[in-house]
Design a protein that fits this description.
With 277 residues, the chain is of the alpha/beta class. Helix content is 21%, strand content 31%.
Length: 277
């Protein structure tokens, strides 16, 4: 391995400048970028390291270009992510990145964008919403479909009014298990794809969520007339190095950390759900 490759694997010290609880098991950590680190693009991820515990890949959920603070929504599901719950504002963590291929916003210029998120699949899509809002004249309609298990599991509820205030933007929500107070849609997010009015020839679909949700989202999009070059998926695999060296996230000849995590459907259909689409 070249010396430069070793250097890329060394975490840099970064400060946690803000912590915001989102749901019962998801918290957003705002991290100040180390000096010399480039700003990520929507859809990319960073490797975050807790000293003495380990390292995990976490997608970027917002980008503050002015003060170089990057948000990461962390769900507490394992030993490393659970260790994040002990952090306080002002603490330091290790940081590597940004890594991977992000959402193809350059391709989407002049087109409509359909965002489909399930559960913690909304955070990687959130920077797309911010980009469209900041350069609204570059894109057509923005349609956001988002679902979670319960109303309490919906992320960023405090931002929904901001989303719908973006010109030519729609937000459709659904939950699997409603409460008595819930007055919105009930059912999986893929049900919304069947009812939303979009032009598959003038729309790019960005999908992120559990694999089973993405599988059925793809099926519904194909039924709706979307071509495989207009459907993009953000995959999640067990990524250890982030730079395509360890092989943990290999899929066919590709590495999710290096060639993804965002892939066009046509690019991975030979290795991903090929017998199911």
């Amino acid at each position: 391995m070249r010396k430069e490759s070793y250097k890329a694997l060394i975490p840099l010290k970064s400060a946690v400048v803000k912590i915001r609880p989102e749901t019962r098991n998801v918290v957003t950590y705002y991290v100040k970028l180390p000096d010399g680190v480039e700003l990520p693009k929507p859809g990319q991820f960073n490797m975050l390291y807790i000293h003495g515990v380990g390292e995990v890949p976490i997608s970027v959920s917002s980008i503050s270009y002015e003060d170089r603070v990057i948000a990461h929504a962390v769900r507490f599901v394992g030993s490393v992510t659970n260790a994040f719950s002990t952090l306080k504002e002002g603490d330091h963590i290790g940081f590597r990145g940004p890594y991977g291929v992000g959402w193809p916003l350059d391709l989407a210029v002049g087109n409509d964008i359909l965002l489909i998120g399930g559960g913690v699949g909304l955070p990687p899509l959130r920077p797309v919403i911010d980009e469209v809002r900041s350069a609204r004249e570059l894109y057509g309609r923005l349609v956001i479909l988002y679902g979670a298990r319960t109303p309490e599991d919906l992320l960023y509820t405090y931002e929904y009014d901001e989303y719908t205030s973006i010109p030519n933007t729609e937000l459709h929500l659904t939950v699997d298990n409603p409460t008595n107070e819930w007055r919105g849609n009930v059912g999986v997010v893929t049900n919304l794809i069947r009812t939303v009015d979009v032009d598959p020839n003038n729309t790019y679909a960005f999908v992120c969520g559990p694999e089973i949700m993405m599988k059925f989202s793809v099926k519904e999009l194909l039924k709706k007339g979307f071509k495989s070059n207009r459907i993009f998926l953000s995959l999640e695999r067990r990524m250890k190095c982030g730079v395509g060296l360890c092989g943990h996230c290999q899929m066919g000849p590709y590495f999710v950390c290096k060639h993804g995590p965002v892939f066009p459907l046509w690019f991975i259909s030979k290795y991903f759900w090929v017998d199911q689409i």
